[in-house]
Design goal:
The protein has about 120 residues and is of the alpha+beta class. It has a domain at about 5-70 and about 105-115: 2-Layer Sandwich (hypothetical protein PF0899 fold). About 25% of the residues lie in helices and about 35% in strands. The chain contains two helices and six strands. Strands 2-1-6 form a three-stranded mixed sheet. A three-stranded antiparallel sheet has the order 4-3-5, with no helix packed on it. α1 crosses α2. The longest helix is centred in the first third of the chain and has 18 residues, at about 5-20. The mean pLDDT is about 90.
Length: about 120
């Protein structure tokens, strides 16, 4: 998914949450993004910063991104390994290719901080 579309989706979710939770001003939006998405933080933040200006209650908000490494677990020896951005899915302990990804595909809003309406 393109960073602009992701930023727009995040913004829409934040606006819906703000409405449902009676939040007047949003201060901080915390995301968890796995490295498998290959999202450049600065690009996503730039899109969000542009889009938020259309909404008074989001103008002062900022994104905080918690990037998750790509982790795999070996089905043979049960070792857990962190792999780089160019993933080769083999166990670093026993070199088996029988692995499953256990972290790195996340793309979610972890928290939204704001002020409640009075």
């Amino acid at each position: 998914m393109h960073a602009g579309a992701i930023a727009e989706s995040i913004l829409n979710s934040v606006l819906e949450t703000a409405k449902n939770e009676n939040l007047k001003n949003i201060c901080k939006v915390s995301l968890i993004i796995g490295k498998m998405h290959h999202i450049v933080d600065e690009v996503l933040i730039t899109y969000y910063d542009h889009l938020k200006m259309e909404h008074k209650n989001l103008e002062k908000s900022f994104l905080f991104i918690n990037e998750k490494e790509i982790k795999i677990e070996c089905s043979d020896c049960k070792a857990v390994s962190i792999i780089d951005a160019a993933p080769i899915f083999f166990c670093s302990e026993c070199q088996s290719f029988s692995t499953k990804m256990i972290q790195g595909e996340e793309l979610l809003i972890e928290s939204i901080e704001g002020l409640e309406e009075e």
